[in-house]
Amino acid sequence: MTLKGKVALVTGGSRGAGRGIALELARKGAFVYITGRTTEASGIEHSKRSIDNVLREIKAEGGSGSAIRCDHTKDQETEAVIRQIASEQGKLDILVNNVWGGNDLPIEQKSFWELPTAHWDNMFNAGVRAQLITNYYAIPLMREAKAGGLIIHTTFWDHYKYLGNFYYDLSKNTLVRMAYGLSNELKEDNIAVIPLTPGWMRTEAVLESMNTDEEHWHEVEELQMTESTTYIGRAAAALAADPKVMSITGQPQQVAKLAEKYGFTDIDGRTVPAFLV
Question: Matching Pfam families, A to Z (predicted)?
Answer without folding.
Answer: adh_short (PF00106)
